[in-house]
Amino acid sequence: MAKMSKRRKHIFLIGFSGSGKSTVGPLLAKRLRVTFIDTDDLIEQCFGKTIPEIFSQESEAAFRHAEAETVKELCLADYDFVAALGGGAFQDKNNRTQLQHNGIIIYLQCAVSEIYRRLQLTDSRPLLQVTPRKNESKRQAVLHRIKSLLRKRVTQYRTADIIISTTRRTPQEVVEIAAHKIRELYG
Questions:
Q1: Which of 65, 122, 130, 133 could bridge across to 141 with cysteines, CB 3.0–4.6 Å?
Q2: How many domains in the chain?
Q3: Does residue 4 lie within any of the structural domains?
Q4: Are 147 and 57 in contact (CB under 8 A)?
Q5: Does residue 1 sit within a domain?
């Protein structure tokens, strides 16, 4: 577990898209009376484009570079906050190291079927824009893609200080569990 300064508490929410980071984050920040930050929102403001536009017009590499710069800046911040990170941000080793040394990392874990249910009506997730293979439905293709990405990410996600399942839980229940675990671990 990372040693943290008693003067500041950065709380980083990680997990797959649709796990609840952007929903739970503002509620947890309100509960803890700190600022809420969504790194995807910061990156969109920086580029003046949506995430799908950044991926298609710039590149995934440009997005990941901006994401790394955002993580670096957040780790240097001298105020308390809860930050929701993009689903792939924690996969970068430098990001992971910085986050582990500068805050409490909470992995919001979610079942693949629930992730699909939450994301099925959105087209704002560029990594989930897939073309079904022959004899495969769009649903099967997206489920396959979620499982594939999650397999690649889960080992890093599980290194978090706190792991909370959001499947079959309301955002308020997740906030209560998170607040309790933060208090339990860090006083």
A1: 130
A2: 1
A3: no
A4: no
A5: no
What DSSP string runs through 128-170? G--PPPTT--HHHHHHHHHHHHHHHHHHHHTTSSEEEE-TT--
pLDDT band at 110 (very low <50, low <70, confident <90, very high): very high
If pLDDT is split at 50, 70 and 90, which confidence band does 124 have? low
Asked whether the predicted pLDDT for residue 6 surpasses 60, the reply is no
Neighbour tally for 139: CB within 10 Å:
11
Q: What's the start-to-end Cα distance of the chain, in Å?
A: 14
- The first and second tokens of residue 112, run together, are 């693949």
User: What's the CA dihedral at 122, 123, 124, 127 to 10 degrees?
Assistant: 110
Say if CB 15 and CB 157 are below 8 A apart: yes
In CATH, what number is assigned to the domain containing residue 117? 3.40.50.300
